[in-house]
Amino acid sequence: MKQSGPRDGYGDFKMVWRTLSLYERFEQIVALVLTALIAVIIVIATWDLAKEVFTMAWKRVLDPLDHRVFQPIFGQIMFLLIALEFKHSITKVVAHRESITQVKTVLLIALLAISRKFIILEAEQYTAPTIVALAAVVVALGIAYWLIRDRDQDVVKAD
User: Fold this and answer.
1) Is residue 1 very low, low, confident or very high in pLDDT (cuts 50, 70, 90)?
2) Rounded to a whole number, what is the largest CA-CA distance in the chain?
3) Which residues contact 76 (CB under 8 A, 6 or more apart)?
């Protein structure tokens, strides 16, 4: 029975590392550094969010029904989700399961980012054409993601 754990993963990494070209090794190193940096950002952002929520709760000003309180908190949560998705996509590159460019992941992160923008935006600060343009971007990204997703499902069905 084969054991699975960190050592086993390290052995797999060493075997794959030997087969990589110089540039592929460079990509792996950059991906590892980016993963570490994003992890640090996630930890700091989570700490700041927790601090803010607990401070607001302690001062009894945490009212999720008040949009002025809810919007920034939810914006921070969305930021963390975007960062986690971004880190996850880079981690897949480090695990050598996918190549650097994943269009579907880029589209998903863009959709999350623009959705975050809609959640935290104060409508009175923007003109109607700007809001319509943002909505058009969401629709375009959604359609592109849908088309890419369907393409991937067709490839899986063909196998």
Assistant:
1) very low
2) 64
3) 45, 48, 49, 52
Residue 63 φ/ψ region, left for φ over 0, alpha for ψ in the -120 to 50 degree band, beta for the rest: beta
What DSSP state is assigned to residue 59? Answer: T
pTM of the model: 0.69
For 89, what's the count of Cα atoms within 13 Å in the CB-facing half-sphere?
A: 16
Rounded Cα distance, 85 and 77, in Å = 12
CB 82 within 8 A of CB 112: yes
Helices 103-120 and 67-94: crossing angle, nearest 10°? 170
CA 148 – CA 122 distance, rounded (Å): 32
Tell me the per-residue pLDDT of 105-139, one tens digit each, with 9 for 90 and over.
Answer: 888 888 888 888 887 888 788 899 999 998 999 99
Report the pLDDT value the prediction gives residue 19, as an integer from 0 to 100: 80
What's the whole-number mean pLDDT along residues 78-97? 81
Measured in whole angstroms, how far is the alpha carbon of residue 4 from the centre of its chain?
A: 27
Domain boundaries, the chain: 13-158
